[in-house]
Specification:
The complex is a heterotrimer of chains A (735), B (137) and C (113). Chain B is of the alpha+beta class. Helices cover 26% and strands 28% of the residues of chain B. In chain B, β4 and β5 form a beta hairpin. Chain C has 2 domains: 1-34; 37-113. Chain C has helices spanning 2-27, 39-63, 69-96. In chain C, α2 (39-63) runs antiparallel to α3. Chain C is elongated, with a radius of gyration of 25 Å. The relative contact order of chain C is 0.10. The chains are: A alpha+beta (735), B alpha+beta (137), C mainly alpha (113). Chains A and B meet through α3, α5, α14, β1 and α15 of A and α1, β1, β3 and β8 of B. β1 (382-383) of chain A pairs antiparallel with β1 of chain B, so a sheet runs across the interface.
Chain lengths: 735, 137, 113
């Protein structure tokens, strides 16, 4: 079956090459049938890659360890769901996932444009198949997921325990969907520039795909932040790590595109901006894909040197060179005679928005690649830390939030001073009220940055609220609808506008959460014995007892043993809750006779965060039971010797099964001993306000995006009707 | 001013502004950055105790608990060859910390020991992304 | 056994691929596969819908107090004029029945003098 998989990939590559040739030939010679055949290659690619994915997934589910990739990333003890997801935890598996997602989205795009943009489609098809060819070449010649070893190993290395949680199931597919979706606007932009046609039709098609990419990538970024916060032991959700930045940069650029393309639609301006933004966003998405796997930059994600560095650099260089060439050579078509009517117009605000977003992206780009840049310039790799990033991104983000509140309040083309006074009054009052509240009610007068952000967020929410209120009132006055009906139909008739407003509110809420949780956080890292407590902000956390379990840990990760603690949290003497942080210990591979007990727990270790969330604050805790430093547990603590004692009671001459059973029995006793006589443990505890607002804000952003992207039923109906009318006309003409 | 001329002026002004701001950014990045070094590079440097980002692999059997929750261990280059550096670390320890794992700490070399800033340890995800086939451990 | 299954799978896949890819060449005889609604018509339709959206947006801006009456009326007149132009081009296209007027690359005049 692996052989079938390999053949499938070769056929996929052949189909890509055929499709590129066919589409280009058909475009050059006006042969519609060749173009259509080229388009169908995309459908074929999707079908073939689905088969290849299925073959690989079946191998994972069936624990077929003859497949190298299954042996490296899965094992008999990995739960079924994680086994299926283990496919994309390896390089070759993730490449296959990437190109499969690309083929699926490309098929959707091809289907949706089967009757439009006919001059652009052949070139867009070729570009998409070009990406497909690149990735299938990597899979066929460089790193095949179907490589096998015979005889097959008995068991696999197992899935990294860090990845054994639900967020990690969806985070890669979401991110990859975001990255791969970007290839579609890229392909259509390249095609449009080649045929020199960037009109309303192109905008309409491209914008929808760009919005979808934006949404997927946003979800991926948010899920990554959530995973970092809930699963890793540092209690943060954003560290300006290279891979976080790699996903954020294309997201920022596509945000700029989604806004400034509106100006192109209305005024025919900023065409060069928009073409460049689309091409840049997609190139950054590929750079992001490359960064995650190349080992080029130090980061939590960077792996050892990968062999795929050179092909990716060639691809990225080609994309950059091609984009620059196209924009410069087509600048005649992209130029416009129009200028901004006034500095006080929505166009001006959008232009400023563009500039700030690109500036933000540049800052992040510079900081992310600084190790490479400084190495090239000075010979030593230098690294900039979080304070540097914060220094520049915080003010820029503040400006963005403010702009998102100002934009809805001013008109297109030209805003008059009188109107501005009327529209800005309420939001400014809200901001002032928030400032007042900050200084009198909430004790945050010492943190000016956070206060400014809260005022900006109040400004945004008030301005959006005002827009909704006024629009709703107008709708009610002119139609006979019920109050909720009027609201719904108002939004339905202007999905993009009101969806966008909802997104702005979501961003404001998200930033409020970020500002509050980073500025007013209290953190402690301290060693506690049972009975001792630590003060974190207004809370007191007391280590009341130790916890431990053998195999059946509450989070169902399959850890051999889990050791933890119960922390009793009080505030002002009142009981608030109990946190249950723990650490899970996994086996090494292989497990050697003579040290079965220690091998069963000296593999990877995973933090299980003890967390209590509420709208007001999060109480976060992680534990490192001091008994278990140095993986062989032979360090100078008594518990270490318990393990080696247990090892000595198991004779290597017994059968493997009996050794294992005895080892588990001994471990059970050790866990019980730990719970009864717990040594001191190292705790990291954090009290952080408004963290939940970050996730909630993200959900609002997603909701707003869905509103904006949903096709309006009226438009669909009229398109269908137009086709019928045209068909009637044609048939009448023929008769 | 004619429109093309005005556009020209606007372009020049905005580009100049962009270059000035970018220069400010670039300057501060060099000023605020720390070199990223491996243990062998760190030990061969003559420049004293400036803050540095150290990347290396934890050497087996060198990990010790120190009183007060601190940790001491030795780091070696990724190639596993060359001199090792003794690291003194306090603060939160990621659960993935273990001998043979690659990690990054920020701190300064003081009298032969690398004193790390509390909480600055980042461990790397285990290397499952290498294309070279490796035998199951 | 598994080898037989694999061989069958590959054969089925290849057949499917060849069948799909050759479709446009085989189907050509059954009608010329030309969509009755032409590309130019579609571009004009998109331009028309974008223009309608602009007119609506303008109305909303006025009703929610962002545009003065004077500004609104001037802009509304201009936008509706541009919409009329697009509709005229669509009609011309339909009447011409094949002699398509290429859609203007930028169907809007400059700002009001």
């Amino acid at each position: 079956m692996a052989f079938a998989g390999r053949i499938a990939l070769i056929v996929a590559l052949a189909v890509c090459v055929y499709g590129i040739g066919g589409a280009l030939y058909g475009a050059r010679h006006g042969r519609r049938d060749w173009v259509d055949s080229g388009r169908r290659s995309i459908y074929c690619l999707a079908a073939i890659l689905t088969v290849a994915m299925a073959i690989l997934e079946v191998a994972f589910i069936r624990n077929d360890f003859s497949y190298n990739t299954v042996a490296h990333t899965s094992s008999t003890t990995t739960p079924l769901l994680y086994r299926a997801a283990a496919m994309w935890s390896s390089q070759e598996g993730s490449l296959l996932l990437w190109v499969w997602l690309l083929s699926v989205w490309a098929s959707v795009a091809t289907f949706m444009t089967r009757r439009r943009l006919r001059d652009i489609v052949p070139y867009a098809t070729s570009v998409l198949l070009g990406f497909g060819a690149f990735f299938t070449t990597l899979l066929v010649f460089f790193d095949s997921p179907f490589a096998q070893t015979h005889p097959a190993p008995v068991d696999g290395a197992g899935l990294d325990p860090l990845l054994r949680n639900p967020s990690m199931l969806i985070h890669p597919p979401m991110l990859y969907s975001g990255y791969t979706f970007f290839t579609i606007p890229f392909a259509f932009a390249v095609g449009a520039l080649i045929v020199r046609r960037v009109d309303a039709d192109w905008i309409r098609v491209t914008r929808r795909f760009a919005l979808a990419s934006w949404m997927f990538l946003g979800i991926g970024i948010l899920l990554g932040a959530r995973w970092s916060y809930y699963e890793l032991g540092w209690g943060g959700y954003w560290g300006w790590d290279a891979v976080e930045n790699a996903a954020l940069m294309p997201w920022l650029i596509s945000t700029a595109f989604l806004h400034s393309v509106m100006i192109q639609e209305k005024r025919g301006m900023l065409k060069i901006w928009n073409a460049s933004l689309v091409l840049a966003a997609s190139t950054l998405a590929i750079i992001g894909t490359f960064l995650v796997r190349s080992g080029v930059l130090d980061s939590i994600h960077a792996f050892g040197a990968s062999t795929l560095g050179v092909p990716f650099v060639i691809l990225i260089a080609t994309m950059i060179a091609g984009s620059v060439y196209l924009v410069i050579s087509r600048r005649g078509v992209l130029r416009t005679e129009h200028t901004l009517d006034s500095m006080f117009s929505r166009e001006a605000a959008f232009l400023l928005n563009n500039v700030v977003l690109v500036g933000l992206c540049f800052v992040i780009f510079w900081g992310t690649f600084f190790p490479l840049i400084s190495q090239a310039l000075t010979g030593t790799a230098q690294h900039v830390g979080t304070p540097w990033f914060d220094r520049y991104t915080v003010p820029l983000a503040l400006i963005l939030v403010l702009l998102s509140g100002i934009g809805p309040l001013i008109a297109w083309r030209r805003a008059s001073l009188a109107n501005m006074r009327r529209n800005f009054a309420l939001p400014l009052a809200a901001a002032a009220a928030m400032a007042l509240a900050s200084y009198t009610v909430i004790p945050i007068s010492s943190q000016i940055g956070a206060v400014i952000l809260f005022c900006a967020a109040a400004f945004v929410c008030a301005s959006v609220g005002q827009e909704f209120w006024r629009g709703w009132r107008v709708r009610r006055a002119t139609s006979r609808e019920s109050p909720p009906g009027a609201l719904v139909s108002m939004v339905r008739r202007n999905r993009r506008r009101y969806g966008g407003y909802v997104v702005h509110v979501g961003i404001a809420v998200l930033f409020v959460g970020v500002a509050a949780s980073s500025t007013f956080q209290h953190e402690q890292t301290v060693t506690l014995r049972v009975g001792q407590s630590v003060a974190v902000g207004a809370y007191e956390m007391k280590y009341v007892r130790a916890t431990g379990s053998l195999i059946s840990d509450p989070k169902n990760t399959g850890a051999t043993i889990t050791l933890g603690a119960a922390l009793r949290v009080t505030r002002g003497g009142h009981y608030v809750g109990t946190l249950l942080p723990s650490a899970g210990y996994f086996p090494t591979n292989p497990i050697l006779p003579g040290q079965v007990v220690s091998d069963l727990i000296s593999g990877d270790a995973v933090d299980q965060v003890g967390l209590q969330s509420s709208w007001r604050r999060d109480l976060w805790s992680a534990i490192k039971p001091l008994a278990t430093t140095d993986s062989v547990l032979g360090s100078q603590v008594p518990e270490g010797s318990l393990v080696s004692d247990a090892d000595r009671t198991i004779s290597p001459t017994w059968s493997g099964k009996v050794q294992l059973e005895t080892a588990y029995y001994e471990l059970g006793l050790i866990v019980k001993h730990y719970v009864r006589f717990p040594p001191p443990a190292l705790f990291t505890v954090i009290a952080s306000p408004l963290v939940v607002w970050i996730w909630f804000g993200g959900a609002i952003v997603l909701f707003g995006g869905l509103i904006a992207i949903w096709p309006s039923p009226a438009a669909l109906r009229s398109r269908v009707r137009a086709r019928y009318l045209a068909r009637i006309a044609q048939e009448l003409g023929r008769a | 001013m004619t429109p093309p001329r005005r556009r020209h002026v606007k372009l020049v002004v905005s580009l100049t502004l962009a270059v000035v701001l970018a220069s400010g950014l670039i300057y501060t990045s060099f000023a605020a950055s720390n070199p990223a070094l491996t243990p062998s590079q760190l030990l061969s440097r003559s420049r004293g105790a400036s803050t540095v980002q150290l990347t290396g692999t934890v050497v087996s059997h060198t990990v010790r608990d120190l009183p007060g929750g601190a940790l001491a261990f030795r780091l070696v280059d990724r190639t596993k060859r060359g001199p090792t550096v003794l690291v003194d670390y306090s603060g939160a320890v990621p659960p993935t910390f273990e001998p043979g794992r690659e990690l990054i700490v920020t701190g300064a070399l003081r009298e032969g020991t690398f004193v790390a800033q509390p909480g600055s340890m980042i461990t790397k995800c285990p290397s499952k992304y290498s294309a070279a086939p490796s035998t199951p451990a | 056994m598994s080898a037989l299954l694999a061989a069958l799978l590959i054969a089925a896949l290849l057949t499917l691929v060849l069948w799909i890819l050759s479709g446009p060449f085989r189907e050509r005889r059954d009608g010329d596969g030309v969509d009755p609604v032409s590309d130019e018509r579609r571009a004009l339709e998109s331009a028309k819908e974008a223009k309608y959206a602009e007119i609506r947006d303008n109305e909303i801006d006025h009703r929610t107090g962002k545009l003065s009456d004077l500004d609104f009326r001037a802009l509304d007149r201009q936008l509706r004029g541009e919409a009329v132009e697009i509709l005229r081009q669509i009609d011309e296209l339909e009447a011409g029945g094949g002699h398509a007027v290429p859609p203007p690359a930028d169907p809007r005049p400059g700002p009001p003098a």
